[in-house]
Amino acid sequence: MALQGKVALVTGAASGIGEETARKLAADGAAVVIADLNLANAQKVADSIVAAGGKAIAVSMDVTSEDAVNAGIEETVAKLGGIDVLVSNAGIQIVAPIEEYAYADWKKMLAIHLDGAFLTTKAAIKHMYASGKGGSIIYMGSVHSHEASKLKSAYVTAKHGLLGLARVVAKEGGPRGVRANVVCPGFVRTPLVEKQIPEQAKALGISEEEVVKNVMLKETVDGEFTTVADVANTVAFLAGFESNALTGQSVVVSHGWFMQ
Ligand code: NAD
Question: Which residues have a catalytic role annotated?
Answer without folding.
Answer: 155
